[in-house]
Amino acid sequence: MKSPRVSARALILRGNSLLAIRAKDAHGEFFVLPGGGQNHGETLPETVVRECREELGVEIEAGELCYVHDYIAERDEFCTEDCSAHQLDIIFRARILSGEPGWGSAPDTHQLGLQWLPLEALSAYRLYPRALRRWLTEPDHPIYLAFEEGL
């Protein structure tokens, strides 16, 4: 049996905008938080710092844990590739210490760029995870967000 993959992601806000990686799949353009898979022997905060350096070319500080999200591909209506994937995303509030977000040293292969998404218009974007929209707009939000179908 395949174990879930652990991923650390950064929630970076500037004013009323959220920084997101812009990508594309068979269903069109979508957005995800910067971050990625944890390496053996690496702490989750170390993972998110490294991933933001690789994907965005910035140095960040990982802050408080915002939430934990389960992604179960076989339940995702948009799954077109590895539908057996199960990923646990650990989301940290983060702030940029130095640099301006752009292309990092090792962007993801599906990465097209990045974009600051206005918080008041998040419903207009295919943003993963979907539950993030609710988390950013509700004052009393859960820390664990169960899987919701679709991105």
Write structural notes for this entry.
The protein has 151 residues and is mainly beta. 13% of the residues lie in helices and 44% in strands. It has 2 helices and 9 strands, in the order ββββαββββαβ. The protein has helices at 44-56, 131-137, and strands spanning 5-14, 17-25, 28-32, 35-37, 59-72, 86-98, 111-118, 127-128, 144-145. Strands 1, 2, 3, 4, 5, 6, 7, 8 and 9 form a 9-stranded mixed β-sheet that branches. Strand 1 and strand 2 form a beta hairpin. The two termini are 25 Å apart. The mean pLDDT is 86.
Entry keywords:
single chain, 13% helix, 2 helices, 151 residues, globular, 9-stranded mixed β-sheet
Give a quick summary of the entry.
With 151 residues, the protein is mainly beta. Helices cover 13% and strands 44% of the residues.
